[in-house]
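Teaching soon. Invent one.


***
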Amino acid sequence: MSITNEQILDAVAEMSVMQVVELIEAMEEKFGVTAAAAVVAGGAAAEAAEEQTEFDVILTACGPNKVQVIKAVRGATGLGLKEAKAVVDGAPAPLKEGVEKSEAEALKAQLEEAGASVEIK
């Protein structure tokens, strides 16, 4: 004889809070799991399902063409020469934060063309 999920839920609904707590503890012990882990995993899955809309462009390394990368950083960010050089010298460093995916990918392509290593997060 097979018990349906509906029958299990009905039985749990008729239990007192203390009986439900005891049932949860018995299930954790029998199956070697915790109810808290299931809740955290469920929350992480829900967050992962939500599509990311803002991205950060991170300069990870300038590569062999430092001058070209500095020019590309200046063009992309509007920084002066000294500030752009400081960003390139300080890699890894964020270049732009909270930008749309298309802008982030275009900036990444531009910087990689100049010889830099770039990451989008």
